[in-house]
TrEMBL record:
Highest taxon of source: Bacteria
Organism the protein comes from: Tepidimonas charontis
Name of the protein in question: Uncharacterized protein
Length: 286
């Protein structure tokens, strides 16, 4: 990464520049399976069509392709001054909008502004409730059509998103599977925090965990699932190893990810001498 690299996020009055890696801007990402993950936006690269979100309690950010994102929501910043608006009023007039998404759902409401870019659309919805977003980004891959009522009351339609269909593999990768492996645990405090977080997690299917960790492609997973239909008594993980698609070590990491188990770095984690004396030497040597 380039020293002091920055990324730009559009705002109603002026584009904002942030330093890559700094967890300043709160954001929430909604995936195609309906799951929402929240954290801090630490990178946004339209040229590569990728973004990174640092989740609460994680040391490393999640990297997502735009094709995996249904909607990116950014709430108002509590520390930001009111934007300078062309009208001079704190709340400019808003106009209706309606976006039909690729899954057939419709996102509609009132917005102050709408900006189309080659990589997608930024909407600036009217904020009414405390949890309403101030900015919403819709990747081009998510949009089937966009309608916006102009100042003269006429609805303007834009359906020029036909070349941005989802790639099959992207559409089938759940957002939850893109979460990276948990960071190594080195202290008792980190272990306690990790176990508390694990207790709240929903287990991830082993195939999705492997895809999310980059050990397997969606196409390879489909191939293995088809084989498992013919051999239903064989566990999927074992089958993937036999097919040569993953290594046994990959399976171990994915199993830990599946259940949310933390990884403990035994080289750095402090050892309780009293606990060691409770373990028979032959058992410890196994």
């Amino acid at each position: 990464m380039t020293l002091n690299a920055t990324f730009v996020i559009p705002h109603r009055s002026i584009d904002e520049s942030y330093t890559v890696g700094e967890p300043v801007l709160a954001a929430a990402v909604e995936g195609w399976n309906g799951r929402v993950i929240e954290g801090r936006l630490v990178d946004f690269q339209p040229a590569n069509e990728t973004l990174k979100l640092l989740l609460t309690g994680h040391a490393r950010p999640v990297s997502l392709r735009f094709a995996q994102v249904k909607r990116l929501r950014i709430p108002p910043r509590s520390d930001a001054p009111p934007p300078f608006l062309p009208s001079g009023f704190a709340d400019e007039a808003s106009r209706p909008f309606a976006v039909r998404l690729r899954d057939g759902s419709v996102y509609a409401g009132l917005c102050h502004d709408c900006r189309r870019h080659p990589y997608g659309v930024w909407l600036f919805p009217r904020v009414v409730a405390s949890d309403d977003p101030e900015r919403v980004f819709l990747p081009k891959q998510a949009i089937a059509s966009l309608e916006l009522r102009r100042d003269d009351g006429v609805w303007a339609g834009d359906s020029g998103f036909g070349q941005s269909l989802l790639e099959p593999d992207d559409a089938e990768i759940p957002l939850e599977a893109t979460v990276s492996a948990p960071p190594m645990v080195e202290t008792p405090e980190q272990l306690k925090e990790a176990l508390e977080r694990q207790a709240r997690l929903k287990p991830v299917p082993i195939g999705e965990a492997l895809v999310g960790l980059g050990k397997l492609t969606a196409a390879q997973l489909r191939q293995a699932l088809e084989r498992q239909k013919r051999e239903p008594n064989q566990p999927l993980g074992q089958m993937l190893v036999q097919m040569g698609l993953i290594q046994p070590a990959d399976l171990q990491v994915a199993l830990a990810r599946k259940m949310g188990y933390p990884f403990v770095d035994v080289r750095k984690f402090p050892v309780d001498a009293a606990a060691l004396r409770l373990v028979p030497a032959p058992l410890a040597a196994r």
